[in-house]
Design brief:
The protein starts with a helix and ends with a helix. It has helices at about 1-50, 65-80, 95-100, 115-125, 155-160, 195-200, 220-230, 240-245, 265-270, 290-310, 320-330; strands at about 55, 60, 85, 105-110, 130-140, 140-145, 155, 185-190, 215, 235, 250, 255, 260, 275-285. It is built from 11 helices and 14 strands. It folds into 2 domains: about 55-135 and about 280-330, D-Maltodextrin-Binding Protein, domain 2; about 140-270, 3-Layer(aba) Sandwich (D-Maltodextrin-Binding Protein, domain 2). By secondary structure, the chain is of the alpha/beta class. Strand 8 (about 185-190), helix 6 (about 195-200) and strand 9 (about 215) form a beta-alpha-beta unit. Helix 2 packs across helix 10 and helix 10 runs antiparallel to helix 11 (about 320-330). The strands form 4 sheets. A 5-stranded mixed beta sheet has the order 9-8-10-6-11, sandwiched between helices. Strands 2-4-14-5 form a 4-stranded mixed beta sheet, with helices on both faces. Strands 7-12-13 form a 3-stranded mixed beta sheet. It is a lipid-anchor. Its main location: membrane. Pfam families: PBP_like_2.
């Protein structure tokens, strides 16, 4: 009896041990699968979590013309990366490059290419950069909605009005059929890329007059108010600002030698609005581009600015050109 009981006890202990071993194996298998599943789940979860962890500040300054583009890109980017701040200033293209070459900002908005002296300043400061073309613009000559006598102006007439040393005082001095009323001029300031482009394209770099007949401002909205408030006023700025204020402004078709052309999305894109169609740029400090938030913002900018350009009054580049610009970031 004792032997039978001992055998049964041993048998029961063996069965318990086998069951425990099987359970342990089952748990290990389940545990590995669970670990793998958990790992997979964590990896899937980590992708947006890592993206959400982007934070910091990306300082941008420069062209008031490029400002609407960069502001739009920053606002959309911020919806996905709420912890990244992208303040955008409007000190003008020249003002932006001064800060950029001093290492004070990560990105410079520019409505013209960087000048040789600005590039030298950056080089002397040890700042390497990448130039990215983001959209096209048509620099627009505008007058008040109340102006009922201008149907177009030639490049020569614009030169006569704005060039330094000009003695033109009334509209009749520009064209005999115009009224003998004083011309009131409005222009971006000398730090503006728009000023530089107009000076080059219309005035052959002779310079813009600086007398009591003309007012300067880096704020395009101030120029809009000045021109719209004077029947005999005239000014110029980016196409987006005209589109935004076309209820109170009239755009002037410009004859560059092939007939009077009105700036539109089509004429700007195909270059027929000459000589006032121009590319717009951002310049990125390469050292800053090593920061993940800066790199992600710039990638987002180039990959999304095409549709945004149309929304804020500019003309998108061809898709293949955006692909070329995106490749520069890599």
């Amino acid at each position: 009896m004792l032997k039978k009981k001992g055998f049964k006890g041993i048998l029961m202990l063996s069965m318990v041990a086998m069951l425990a071993f099987a359970a342990a194996c089952g748990n290990n298998t389940g545990g590995n699968a669970e670990t793998e599943n958990t790992g997979t789940t964590n990896n899937a979860t980590n992708a947006p979590t890592e993206a959400a962890k982007l934070s910091g500040e990306i300082k941008v300054d420069g062209s008031s013309t490029v400002f609407p583009l960069t502001e739009a890109a920053a606002e959309e980017f911020n919806k996905e990366h709420a912890d990244v701040r992208v303040p955008v200033g409007v000190s003008g293209t020249g003002g932006g490059f001064k800060q950029f070459c001093a290492g004070e900002i990560a990105i410079a908005d520019a409505s013209r290419p960087i000048k040789d002296e600005e590039a030298t300043a950056c080089k002397d400061a040890g700042i390497e950069y990448t130039e990215l073309t983001v959209a096209f613009d048509g620099l627009s000559v505008v007058v008040s909605k109340d102006n009922d006598f201008i149907d177009h102006l030639t490049v020569e007439e614009l030169n006569k009005i704005f060039v330094t040393g000009s003695t033109v005082a009334t509209w009749k001095d520009v064209r005999d059929t115009f009224p003998a009323e004083p011309i009131v001029m409005f222009s971006p300031g000398a730090d503006s890329g728009t000023y530089d482009y107009f000076n080059e394209a219309i005035l052959d770099k002779a310079g813009i007059r600086n007398d009591k007949a003309i007012s300067f401002s880096e704020d395009d909205n101030a120029l809009v108010q000045g021109v719209s408030g004077s029947k005999y006023g005239i000014g110029y700025f980016g196409f987006a600002y005209f589109e935004e204020n076309q209820d109170k402004l009239k755009v002037v078709p410009v004859d560059g030698g092939a007939g009077a052309i009105t700036p539109t999305t089509e004429t700007i894109k195909d270059g027929s609005y000459a000589p006032l169609s121009r590319p717009l740029f951002i310049y990125v400090n390469n050292k800053e581009l090593e920061r993940p938030e800066v790199k992600e913002f710039v990638k987002y900018y180039i990959n999304n600015i095409g549709p945004l350009a149309g929304e804020v009054g500019y003309v998108a580049l061809p898709d293949e050109q955006y692909a070329t610009e995106a490749a520069k970031i890599q």
